[in-house]
Amino acid sequence: MYRGSYRQRHADLWPTNYKLGMWVWLLHRVTGVIIALYGIAHLLVISSSLLNSDGDLFEDIMKVFENRVLLGFELALIAVILFHTFNGLRVILFDLGIGIRAQKLLFWGLMAVAVILFAFAADALLPYIRGEARL
Amino acid sequence: MATIERSSAPPPRGREEPAGAGPGLWSWLLQRISAVLIAFFLGVHMWILHIDKVGEKITIDRVADRLQSPWSIAVYAVLLAAVLYHSLNGILNISADFGLGARAHRALSWALLGVGVAGLGLGVATIVHLVRIFDGAAG
Predict the structure, then answer these.
(1) What's the mean pLDDT in A63-88?
(2) Residues 6+ apart with CB under 8 A from A9
(3) Residues of chain B with pLDDT under 50
(4) Can you tell me the distance from the alpha carbon of B134 to that of B119, in angstroms, rounded to the nearest whole number?
(5) How far apart are CA B81 and CA B120, in angstroms?
(6) Whole-angstrom Cα distance, residue B63 to residue A55?
(7) With an 8 Å Cβ cutoff, are A58 and B63 in contact?
(8) pTM for the whole thing?
(9) ipTM score
(10) Which residue of chain A comes nearest to B120, CA vs CA?
């Protein structure tokens, strides 16, 4: 009954044996949590404008986000959001019964669209991240 | 296969423990509807704030100016509500997959609802504030 190593007995739980769909499912949840945390932080930052009416504090806080490292994180966040958006679109299409037999093709097709949109974002942001352009 | 751990506490009398403390039909449907709203309005948000204005500093005047038309106020109000619902309900769904018992699921639902109401209040207050200061500043 209990023959073989842990890895053999639990082959279906071993990460290197995950099928694409398992990774995508996991990544959808991980990206979802990241975006939820960003959303809360974003709401708190923007609502700081409530604290003074001339907007000086808000603009000081906005200056913090001109930091190149933070801009790099923002570009990474765009990748995270694009993955979650376009994989989410596949999930909705699946629920509607569209493309069920072509899941892999649909997934990679939607990821291709996400990559193209990411390229636009990278093109706009990279000069600022590299320090070649300044606000 | 791993078995799902359940709360050892008995469910309150008269309330059956659900088969799985997972999303119900309305939660599932609203999660999809909010997803589509966010995909669309977040695209609008990114376009008008960033893509169309690359290299421009974000100032309080720009933010307030953006909130002048009733349409953009509606867009941001819908985006705020949809993002809060989708993210907090998503956290609830993920937590349910870790095998929360019915009581813990209910407690987490109320806690997340509290976070959502607080976030909605803070967001609406911010939108109202930004609409007001533009009127005061530009006359």
Answers:
(1) 95
(2) A2, A3
(3) 1-8, 17, 19-21, 136-139
(4) 23
(5) 7
(6) 10
(7) yes
(8) 0.83
(9) 0.85
(10) A43
Which residues on B lie below 8 Å from A39 (Cβ)? Answer: 83-84, 87
* Count of CB atoms situated within 10 Å of the CB of A63: 12
Shortest Cα distance, chain A CAs vs residue B13, angstroms: 34
Contact B87 A36 (CB under 8 A): yes
For A9-29, what is each residue's pLDDT tens digit?
Answer: 777 767 666 788 888 999 999
Average pLDDT over residues A74-85: 97
All domains of chain B, ordered by start, with CATH?
Answer: 26-138 (1.20.1300.10)
Per-residue model confidence (pLDDT) at position B87 = 97
Gap between the Cα atoms of B102 and B19, Å rounded: 9
pLDDT for A133 beyond 80: yes
Full set of structural domains in chain A with CATH: 6-130 (1.20.1300.10)
